[in-house]
From TrEMBL:
Coiled-coil residues: none
Family annotation (SUPFAM superfamilies): L domain-like (SSF52058)
The UniProt record lists the keyword ATP-binding: no
Official protein name in the record: LRRNT domain-containing protein
GO cellular component: plasma membrane
Source organism of the structure: Caenorhabditis nigoni
Listed InterPro entries: KCNMA1_auxiliary (IPR051432), Leu-rich_rpt (IPR001611), Leu-rich_rpt_typical-subtyp (IPR003591), LRR_dom_sf (IPR032675)
């Protein structure tokens, strides 16, 4: 599930519609040049070069270039050593993309002169660190993509990007976060998929953050206090190692921020949800818990939202327990089960036997344990001696259907 379609509206990719460049701009070798539809004397360049070096950038009128995309060959062993101020002449550049161009050392002034740049993509370059002041040369950056590098921590140099809205640090080696991002007050979207983060402290993120994606990391612990993440609306933690979700009253560990609307916790190791785990999420509209280790889910865990919550629960080892009957009538609790027909449950006596939850319900196979019980509609149930009362023998484990129309028993040794 993608949480960030709004970025396509904020920062659309360039789609050329013309195939000729202005007469003042001879197109470089191994490049495609396109006229700008709005500014006839400006061009968009898409180049396929072996590496970044000064000879490729000897253009007649670099000031006419509005967007520049450079793609190096796949799996190329060539490593670039770009000079200081390589893009100095591109003073009107709006967007710069460098993809697959391996860089051994990033010069401090690599982006000197790019004062108008609002979008920078520098990915798959095997960069392990950035100079402290490298982004001070492009203070107007609104979106920055540093995915596919070898960063082990978020770069300290990000501190100078006070207009930054979207940051992508996916596919790096980041294991933990410092306080670098807190000062970026305009930052709303952070994507850090496929890293090595083990725990999350929401106090390390900027206050205005609305979207956070940390898919496929190693997160097992989340730390939250009510004063943090006050504007966070979408949280994607799919593919991590969370084992439980707690409620706000239990403390600060594995508690989710209160303002969330969309939450993806699929493909984790969840085996327990606190009874009031999501009660404080009054704006929740979507919760994905697919492919976890949940054997039981209680309706009380999901109450609290003022909206109807769309819930996904398939690919969990749920038991065919009578407590799951509420899933058949979830809409009465303001919950919509988005994948009800795909939910399977295991027989309580024979866990290897599974069936769809809806089929188990229709066949009266949702069972509960009992020590003593009365037949359905039995009038003498309150009396100590009642001929329609069932007592579970001491050596047995006894189960009944939810509507008390059938009972089962097995010897305790049959686990």
């Amino acid at each position: 599930m993608s949480f960030f379609p709004l970025l396509l509206l904020l920062f659309p990719q360039f789609h050329p519609t013309a195939t000729s460049s202005p007469s003042l701009f001879p197109c470089p070798a191994r490049c495609q040049c396109y006229s700008d539809n709005e500014q006839n004397q400006q061009v968009h360049l898409i180049c396929k070069w072996e590496q970044l070096n000064a000879t490729n950038f000897q253009l007649a009128r670099p000031d006419l270039v509005r967007t520049l995309t450079i793609k190096c060959p796949y799996h190329s062993p060539k490593v670039s050593t770009p000079p200081h101020s390589l893009f100095q002449g591109f003073r009107n550049l709006d967007r710069l993309e460098l993809d697959r161009c391996l860089i051994d050392t990033v010069p401090d002034g690599l982006f000197a002169g790019l004062h108008q740049l609002y979008s920078l993509i520098l990915k798959n370059a095997n960069i392990a660190d950035f100079p402290r002041d490298i982004f001070a040369h492009c203070p107007k950056l609104m979106t920055l993509d540093l995915s596919g590098n070898k960063l082990r921590i978020e770069p300290y140099s990000l501190r100078s990007l006070h207009d930054l809205i979207h940051l992508d640090l996916s596919d790096n080696d980041i294991g933990f976060l410092t306080n670098t991002l807190i000062s970026l007050t305009k930052l709303k979207v952070i994507t850090m998929n496929n890293n090595k983060i083990t725990n999350i402290d929401f106090r390390r993120f900027p206050e205005n953050l609305t979207d956070l994606s940390i898919r496929h990391n190693l997160v097992s612990t989340v730390h939250y206090v009510p004063a943090s993440a006050r504007n966070l609306k979408r949280l994607d933690l799919s593919g991590n190692r969370l084992e439980f979700v707690a409620g706000l009253s239990t403390g600060a560990v594995n508690v989710l921020p209160a303002e969330l609307k969309h939450v993806d916790l699929s493909n984790n190791k969840l085996n327990y949800l606190h009874e009031f785990a999501f009660e404080h999420l009054s704006n929740l509209v979507l919760l994905d818990l697919k492919n976890n280790s949940l054997k039981e889910v209680k309706a009380s865990s999901f109450r609290g939202s003022k909206n109807q919550v769309k819930l996904f629960l398939s690919e969990n080892p749920l038991l065919c327990h009578c407590n799951h009957k509420w899933l058949m009538d979830a809409e009465s609790k303001n919950i919509s089960i988005g994948d009800l027909q795909a939910i399977q449950c295991s027989n309580i006596l024979k866990h290897e036997k599974t069936m769809s939850l809806t089929l188990a319900h229709s066949r009266n196979q949702l069972l509960c344990k009992y020590s003593n019980m009365c037949e359905a509609d039995c009038e003498c149930c309150q009396k100590k001696e009642c001929e329609c009362r069932f007592e579970c023998p001491p050596t047995c484990r006894c189960l009944r259907s939810e509507d008390v129309t059938s009972v089962r028993a097995s010897h305790q040794s049959a686990k």
